[in-house]
Structure formats: structure tokens, C-alpha cells
Amino acid sequence: MQAVVLAAGEGTRLRPLTEEKPKALVEVDGRPILSHCFDRVVELGADELLVVVGYKKEKIIDFYGDEYDGVPITYTHQREPKGLAHAVLTVEDHVDDDFMLILGDNIFEANLDDVVRRQREDRADAAFLVEEVPYEEASRYGVCDTNDYGEITEVVEKPDDPPTNLVMTGFYTFTPAIFHACHLVQPSDRGEYEITDAINLLLQSGRTIDAIRLDGWRMDIGYPEDREKAETRLQEGYDPETDEAVATSE
What we know:
Layout: E1 2-7, E2 27-28, E3 31-32, H1 33-43, E4 49-53, H2 57-64, E5 67-68, E6 71-77, H3 84-89, E7 99-103, E8 106-110, H4 112-122, E9 126-132, H5 135-138, E10 142-146, E11 152-157, E12 166-174, H6 177-184, H7 195-204, E13 209-213, E14 216-220, H8 224-236, E15 238-239, E16 244-245
Parallel strand pairs: 1-4, 1-7, 4-6, 9-13
Antiparallel strand pairs: 2-3, 5-6, 7-12, 8-14, 9-12, 10-11, 15-16
Helix pairs in contact: 6-7
């Protein structure tokens, strides 16, 4: 399975860390965020990394070259920051079959393998890793509604009044049907081509999308304090049940 890694963002909220490099190269625990993402998808058996670059793209290309841990890298260029659906379309000509999609600004220590297994074994149209967050934080994300079977029925992008507190985490699997949906998406009020709109088009066409609950943790590195929290979790361990770091003994 190929892995699409979205790494075109500038990371304005991480300034000054991103003044000289793209968000994906900001270090967390001594390594770029992107390396953490690459590690996860390589562990899952990715046979090619399709990396979407944009802001200061040459920094990423120079840093990684044409392979990572023996897995070949193909780069595509998102020339303007027009949203995730727009970014996904840059890899359309390179994708052969079902694929993983990971946002290149997230750190995952979680059950990504469950998402890939659902896609491979059940031949789902798509599967997403989702998690429950406090209601007051849900408006920062794509919010999911599900049925009694654990299937996603609707996704709303950053709603002012979230219908649930179940949100997408930034790891997905898709069939190539997502590309047709992305082509049909119209710009949102933010002027972007939203991946949530493409997902809803898939749902409206009768396709099934499975929601896999997060087991473990993930951190969206949007602000400097997120970077610090992720470093603490990586260095000391983390207990999602208590939402506290767990110091490890020597």
C-alpha cells in the first residue's frame, strides 16, 4: 500500500520555528515531525511514500532525497495552499490502488495498524482513525457523526457548534474513489477545497467509511506548546487514561 504524506504547510502558528524551514521539518524530540510520520507508515508496510510539498519544498527534498529507510519517495507540489482535497489531487496520477493518507504535522503513537487492517481485510471504501476530544476543542477539527455500526455518516469541517466530539485525527485509508470526489469539491467559505466535503460526497454516493477509535495518543503540532507536550510524551511515556506523562525508570 502506498502512503500519501501531506507536508506542504507553512506552519504560521509555529513561528519563529518555521521562518527558515517548513512545518514538517520542525523537530520534535530531536527529529523532524515528518520523520516521525514516515516511521509510522513504513512500519505499516508502505512500499512508496508520496510526499506533497509546498512551502520551502526544497528543504524537504534536500533533507530526505529519493528514499527513506529503503522506501522510495515521490514528491508532488501543491503550488498554492488551497486545502487538503486540493493537495490530495496532486498525487492522483501516482496512486495505483488503496492508499494510506497521513497529515505530516501529527505525531502518532497509536493503533494505525487497525485502520490499515480494516481497509485490507474488509475492503472498506475508506477507514479513519478517530478520537473523542473535549467538546470545546472539537471545533478545531473535522467532526464525525456515526451510526450504530461504527460507520461514519457525516463529517463537518471546524463547526461552530459541533454535533459530536468525535474528530478525525489525520490518519486515513482510501480507495482511488476519493480522487473523483475531490474533483467535484467546490471552494468552502474559507476559499479552500476541503477533504471533508470530498468525504461527504463519498458518503452521499453510498460508500461505507469505517471509524476506528484511537488507542494510544496523537498530537497535532500546531503551536509551540503542542511540540513541547509531544516531546514529553515521547521521552517519558504517556497514559491516555489519566492524560498524564508517565516517567520511566532507568
